[in-house]
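Progress narrative, Year 2. Work on Asparagine synthetase domain-containing protein from Pyricularia grisea advanced from sequence curation to structure prediction during this period.
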Amino acid sequence: MDNSWHPLHTSLWVYNKLALPNMILTCLGNRVETAHSVESRPPFLDQKLADAARQSLSEKWTLKEAGKPFITQELYERRKHPYTAPIKWPCGGPLNRLMERLITKENVENLGFIDWGNTRGWLQAAFGDDADSRSFRRLVIIGSWVVLSQSFGVKRASKQHWYNGLKTCKSS
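Result:
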């Protein structure tokens, strides 16, 4: 750790020698796990071992070997990738029907703070092959508000209530 080291490398070395073993591994790692009878899977802390493991095998090698007789070569050689949930939902599908049942003109107007004109447009744009994911997310939020307001009997919001509450907050 003489002058030949880059300052970043020096900082990382000091962190690995002081904070990692004395604070992080003891407070957030093994001692906490042991106290609660939990076994975790900590990351590799040995750089040489981590490099060897990273370069030697592909991800899920054992699973791929077990399934090799049943899968194509393309699947066998494919790199691991995360699952992504669908962002487009079909018109007339169960989710579309649920949103249309929840998000009606009456329900939206009973909230008191959402414009039905915009909401109707989002209902039309959120489903189908050319669906707009932003409209879908807005509908999920509005649908949640509708369910909450109906479940808990929340009264319709009004500008007067909001304005009176604002005046009360400012004067105190």
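The mean pLDDT is 83. The chain has two domains: 7-42, 87-172.
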